Amino acid sequence: MSEEQAAILRPETLVEEFKKNGVTHIITIPDSETNYLYELMKEQPWLDVIPTSREGETFAIALGLLVSGKVPVCLIQNTGMMESGDSIRGMALDSGFPLVMVVGYRGWTRHGVITDSAARYTEPFLNAFRINYYLVETNEDGKRISTAFEEARATKRPVAVLIGDEYHGFNR
Amino acid sequence: MISAADVFRVFQTHRGNAIVIATGTSGRHWRDFTTNEKRDLTMGGAMGQTTAAALGVALGLPNEQVVLFDAEGALLMNLGILATTAGKQPKNFYHFLLDNECYATTGGQPVPNAKNINYAGMAKEAGYAAAYSFDDLETFGAQVGNILNEKGPVFVAIKVIPEVENEPIGRRQRRPTRNRAETIRDLQAELGITTTYK
Predict the structure, then answer these.
(1) Is residue A172 very low, low, confident or very high in pLDDT (cuts 50, 70, 90)?
(2) Considering only CA atoms, which of B116, B135, B12, B113 is closest in space to residue B69?
(3) A66: helix, strand or coil
(4) Domain containing B47 — which CATH number?
(5) Probe site for chain B from A20, A24, A52, A67 (most B CB atoms < 10 A)
(6) Residues in chain A whose beta carbon is closer than 8 A to a beta carbon of chain B?
(7) A110: pLDDT confidence band, cut at 50, 70 and 90?
(8) Average model confidence (pLDDT) for chain A?
């Protein structure tokens, strides 16, 4: 599949997947690459966006929301995921609640040598925590988000969705 | 400074129906004074993140009053939560800080700049609706009832007497208490919460 053939991942696709899976809250640190996604999420009356100061907070806030019967998603970058190790351990893995974490795959490339260590360590990090993950590169891949939700529900564990579209950045 | 036990003794008379989350060495005294354990939550699991977990409960249950008894060593690990909380302005969130100026559970080493931090000032400047500081029981007791009637997010810093533990952790006396999962289960049953995760 060439880049020309693959449809660029659209922010609407993620929001539709969130709605389909009953998401109530997005806990996030916005970044320049996800700007359009952030704006679109803020427009949804059924969705509460919670901006945070550091990524580790997102997993703890998610736990509080899960206790309250809500359906949160953590939307962060891979750099912040690595910073969040202890929070992922204590607030997500140990809690026994399902949780989908959508992670921007900074530095990811399917074509050549990875030069960004953020990308180099992303999958080894998830493997070390025994967190399963699904890669979403194109719009066609969007349905893998529902697959992640299904797995999270079935296992009562966090499941990651890696957004390998960093350099398209949800631009319209 | 006030003893943490006295803080809880006074607070209990004003608790009403609030959901209470207590953390840290000082926070363990809450179990001696609570009269409604089904509304007590344990949200520890990663030091510095209990504050964020309590915020999540407050945002998820906007019709319930949520009271957190935080610890200054934990808060210092994630000061950004003050801005996160202020950004959402949860009107039902009451953030108490029991400041014993040290890491009591590891032998009493001082936290950074222990005696000179104005935590209430930081919370207020971060955007909390109101912030207070107390270091004597009489003043705290006179004001806590009114504070709990204010709209949140409210921050209340209290200087408490450190209760330093030097016994190795494996030899410390631990009373049976409910674990996190049990407190979550009990609160959800109390409030009739079934997960909406479909």
Answers:
(1) low
(2) B12
(3) helix
(4) 3.40.50.970
(5) A67
(6) 21-22, 24-25, 48, 50-54, 56-72, 86-87, 89-91, 94-98, 153
(7) confident
(8) 91
B27 found inside a domain: yes
Do A62 and B56 count as a contact with CB atoms less than 8 A apart?
yes
User: Chain A residue with minimal CA distance to B126?
Assistant: A53
Question: Quick count: other Cβ atoms within 10 Å of Cβ A147?
Answer: 14
Domain annotation covers residue A123: no
Mean pLDDT, range B186-194, rounded to an integer: 95
Q: DSSP code of B183? A: H
Residue B41 lies in a domain: yes
Domain count, chain A: 1
Phi/psi zone of residue A30: left (φ > 0), alpha (ψ -120 to 50 degrees), beta?
Answer: beta
- The packing angle between helices A11-20 and A144-155, to 10°, is 30
B148 token code pair: 């709990």
CATH number at A43 reads 3.40.50.970
Q: Is residue B198 part of a domain?
A: no
Q: How many domains does chain B have?
A: 1
Across the interface, do B57 and A24 touch by the CB < 8 Å criterion?
Answer: no
> Which of A77-86, B67-76, B168-177 has the lowest average pLDDT?
B168-177
Nearest CB to A61; choose among B48, B52, B61: B52
**Least confident range of A54-58, A85-89, B174-178:** B174-178
Side chain identity at residue A98, one-letter code? P
- CA distance linking residue B24 with residue B177, whole number of Å: 15
| Range from A63-72, B67-76, B188-197 carrying the lowest mean pLDDT | B188-197
User: Which domain range does residue A33 map to?
Assistant: 11-117+135-163
- To 5 degrees, how large is the angle CA B120–CA B32–CA B174? 100
B87 at the A interface (CB within 8 A)?
yes
Beta carbons of B58 and A64 less than 8 Å apart: yes
Could you read off the pLDDT of A16-54 as tens digits, one per residue? 999 999 999 999 997 766 778 999 999 999 999 999 999
Q: Is B129 inside any structural domain?
A: yes
The answer to whether the CB of A27 falls within 8 A of the CB of A58 is: yes
